[in-house]
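Technical note accompanying the year-one report. For the benefit of new consortium partners, we illustrate the data format agreed upon in the data management plan: each record pairs a sequence with a C-alpha cell string. No post-processing was applied to the example shown here.
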Amino acid sequence: MITKYDLLAKAFSKEDANRAWQSWQDYQWDEESDVIPDNIMIVYSFYNYEDYRGYGHVIGYDKEAGEFFEVFGSHCSCYSLEGQWEMEYTSLEELEYSVKRRIEACEERGWRMEADEELDELKELLEIE
C-alpha cells in the first residue's frame, strides 16, 4: 500500500489545484473563492461528464487537520459542481478498502473495469495491485 508521504508527493501544483478547486466553487459570484486555501492539497481529481450530467471526486489532504479527505459531487444539466465542496475525512486504509470494494462489485456483477471509469486511475494513484 502507498504511504502518506508517497501520496502527498503526487500533490497537484498550485495552478492545477486551483483549477480543480474552482469547478466546485461559486467563484463567478465570489472572487475570494477563486484560490484554494493554503491548507488544502489536492492529490487526485476526477470529473466525468456525459449526457448533460456530471460526477466529480477529489482526494486531498488538509494540512491543518493532518488528514486526508474526499469530496463527491454530481449535477444535472442545469448546474455544475459548485456549492458541493464538503470534505469527508478519511484514511489511506479506508481509501484503499473502498477502491477494492468497488473492484469486487464490478467483478461480482460481471462488469468490465471500464464500467467504473475511475477505478483504474484510483488503483494507480493508491498503488493497489
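Partners are asked to follow this layout when depositing records. The two ends are 9 Å apart (CA to CA).
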